[in-house]
Amino acid sequence: MKSRSFVLQACAVGVVTAALLLTACGGLGSGYSYPYYPPYQPSHSSGSASDSSGSSSSTPESSSSESSSEEPSSPASSEPPAPSEPELTPEQRLALYRSEVLQLLNTGRTVPFSAPASALSDAAQTRAEELQQTGRLSHKRPNGKDYTSLLPGSNLPGFVSKELYASGQATPAEFVSHLKTRRSGVDWETVLDTQYTQIGIGYAVDADGVPYWELLLLNG
Questions:
Q1: pLDDT over 80 (residue 25)
Q2: I need a surface site. Which of 38, 125, 131, 142 has the fewest CB within 10 A?
């Protein structure tokens, strides 16, 4: 009996010893905890964004993210274009320029010129076209006659007339400004002379776009 008891005690001591050894090694069965090791991630030399610690993280590309970064296109303007001024016919331009020249000349006169008579206006327009055709400023007409040959009553006693002309001025204002300074103001003094009460105004443009201006002044 003593030997059997000794055997049982020895077995019990062995069991306890084995249990202590297993406990020191981390426990038994499902209670054992394995250390965690992160999965291996290979590094890439391009296509990644690096943070300040030196680790890299790749961001998957997507067409939606690229399209959202583009600037939205601005819609086409819906405002209609500003209407352009209609081009004047030669007749309309002549009438407009005659009116503007007359108004500018009368601003300096004590007795304004009356509206040009049709016969005097026709004569002034003929002279402007003759100057434009010859390209030469002269009181002589292309046929060699004096400009007065166009004026009715030029052979009557007491008839007094004056012809003033210029070329190259683009507008009525430029033409009148030229008259004020031409020949040290002599032409402008003629315009202001009250003995001239009638006026004819002509305007023509040559093939190169050079304008020619004509004034015919008559006494009353």
A1: no
A2: 38
